[in-house]
Each structure stands twice: as C-alpha cells, then as structure tokens.
Amino acid sequence: MEQRRSPGRPAETDPDAIALIALRLFAHRGVDEVTMTEIAQAAGVSRRTLFRWFPSKAALIWGGTLEADERFEAAWTSVLPHEAATGEAGSSPGLMQRVRAAYAASISPLGETSDVTRLRLRLIAENPAVYAWGHDLRERMAAHLAAHIAETIGMPPDSVRVRALVAAISGASYAALAWWAQHDDPRPPVEVLDEALEALAAAFE
Amino acid sequence: MEQRRSPGRPAETDPDAIALIALRLFAHRGVDEVTMTEIAQAAGVSRRTLFRWFPSKAALIWGGTLEADERFEAAWTSVLPHEAATGEAGSSPGLMQRVRAAYAASISPLGETSDVTRLRLRLIAENPAVYAWGHDLRERMAAHLAAHIAETIGMPPDSVRVRALVAAISGASYAALAWWAQHDDPRPPVEVLDEALEALAAAFE
DNA sequence: CCAATTTTAACACTCAGTGCCATAATCGCG
DNA sequence: CGCGATTATGGCACTGAGTGTTAAAATTGG
Description:
Two copies of one chain form a homodimer. With 205 residues, chain A is an all-alpha fold.
C-alpha cells in the first residue's frame, strides 16, 4: 500500500488539530458564542482555509462520524448467520437482535476515544442546528434499516409502518447515545445503547 | 370575553397572510432559494417588520404549531378515566392506549386545514434547519411524555429506558406525520398516526 | 527551468438575524 | 382638544456564516 504522493502544494493544515481546538472552544464558551474567525485565528489558519476544510461549524463537531452508515450496513450483513436461532411466528424473528448487534458494531469505535466523543455528542445534543447537520447521515442509516425491516416484516420500505419502526429504533438509539454523553455512566456507549433497545423491546410484551 | 383593545398603534400587519405568502414562495422555489427580503416585498412590509413578526424563516413555517404540547398535556389527563380497562401485569397497563389518544387529540386540529398543514409539514421534513427550529416544542412534549411514562413503568424520568421509550414514541409519531405530508393518503393525519403507533406496539409481540 | 497541480490567503459579496432610533398611530386622561 | 404613555413601523448599520474569485506559494514530474 505505497501511498502515492499527490502533486501540488502539500497541506500545512492538520484538520484533526483544528477540530480539537474548536471543540475545546465550544465546550468552554458554547457553540454559538465562538466565531469561525476566532477558531481560524486560534488554529493559525486563514478564515477561508478553515472554511475549505470544514464547510460549517457543525462540520467541526461531527468530524469523521459520517461513515457510520457503512459500518452499520457491514455489521448487519455480518450478523446474518444467526438467523436460525429465534424464529417466532408473528412479526419479528431475530430482528431486534440483529438491530442491536448492527448498531453496537457501528458504534463500537466510539468507545475508544471516549472523552472527545462525549464532548462531540454533547454539543450535538445541545444545539439543534448542529444536530440538524447530521441529517444526511441519519437518512442513509434510516434507508438501510428500512430496507431490512421491510424485508423482515414483509411490507414496502415506504409504508407508514416501516417508517414508524425505523424512526422508533433510530430515535431510541440516538437518545441512548445522547444520554450517555450527558451523564457520567462509566459503561461504554455500546452497553447503554443495548439497554435502550432492550427496554424498547421489553416495553410492549 | 370582551377583547380589551390594547393601547398604542394598531397593527397593519396580518401575520397569517404573510405566512401564507411565504409558504407559497417556499413551495415553488424551495426554502433556501427564497430570501427574507423577497418575502417582505411580496407581503408589502419592511424587512424589519417581517423579522419582528417572524424571528426566522423557520418561524414562518412552524406558525402556530407551537402550542401542541399544551393540547397534548390536556388530552393526556382527560383520558385518565379509562385506566380501569386494561391492567396487565408486566409493564404497560393502558399506556399505549393513552399515548395514542393523547397524541391523536393534540394533532386533531391539523385535520381541518389539511392543505396548508401538509405543505408546512413537508417543508419541515425536507429542510433539516427548519426541523431543528421546532426543537423546543419537541423537548416540551418529550418532557411531558417522559413524566407519564416514568410514572407508569416506575423508573426515573431521566433513566435511559424512559428516554429511549420517549424517543421511540415521538420519533414514530413524527415519522407518521411526515409520511402523511409526503404522500397522497386521503385519511386524516390522526389515523395515519394511529396506525403507526399501533404498528409500533404490534412489532414486539 | 517548465508545466501541471494543489494549498493558501486576501478580498468582496450575499443573506440571516439583531440593535438602535426616529416616526406614526392609537389609547386614556385632564 | 392637547398630552403623555404605549405599540407598530421603517430605515440604517452592524455582526457573523458561508461562497466565489483570484493571485501567490509550494510541490510534483519531465
């Protein structure tokens, strides 16, 4: 895997370092109170360059989280073999188990860098505009989940029922992550997520 | 109910008319493509006054929807008497039924002005930034629901479980409304919402 | 050294949203 | 009627996010 050096002027900018500086500023004074110009100065780059690497304030916070849907999809298909385990008659065979496994797998990388992740999630949960910026990611994950659920319960992915189930599961999952970010629970986020999904499944029995 | 006339200069502005003009512009050219200055001109008011009546673009779209939490709370307490009906052992006595009734009641006024409501909801669902603006409303409704659920299942309102259930229910409800807005289903929104909540309850049995 | 390529910075611009202030139109009261 | 209190309006200026454009700087390969 020889990384071919691309032509042109090499970047003097370390996006991760900039994001970290910005996150600290946000944590101390609030997202809306920190100006992009300030961040640029604190990071030692021009305002314009800051905007080239991070097209918005929210982008500084979401960072590299935006590939979570690929991990989700990969995890889902890798949990397939277990389908022989629980085969109930009604509606959801091993659906909830697969959802839990897939979500867990797609989230697990968060456990490593707990501090920064907690901060990121907290900022996202606190600021609606920042949360809104992740809409595309949520849409992609929802589309994947909808396809799977639709197939499982035998309904079109665009039906109200499938949409409602997807929204319920995604909503509960995000709520679990947000809760973890805002509390001091020492467990890794995966376990909290798992508890939430378990509670969801148990609430209607 | 004699409406006491307040002192000061009477308003020459009809906020509903302005909102309607704005909604039509949004529908035709997209929210982001219409400028507040344009709306002001089209409505025959100064830019400054437009901003006085509607503090943001999103406010033009959300309109008077922001008291839905009060209707929700009122509806919830009014459905109380039914509690003697279904008293299961496990976790949720008549909880899902009460949730459905309360949501239905808090949403029912939407059925009357279907066209504009559909448009509003569609714009909200299409534009994350607009959706984000309703965050306070969602928080208030979530707080109410959390209190009720917490009481019902005997867990603190701040626990992961309660948070997850609240998020699931609210998420599914909003998904149902958004679905109704984006499709041509002739049913009133209440029925679609009801179907969604029913599906949610049925999915885990 | 030269051409292609990429990063950076500087400048100017649009638009959302806010603060301030002067002016206009109504109230109740003497 | 005239006067102060009160509220709506409009104009002006300002901040701050985000974008387009362009010229200079730093690398690549030839």
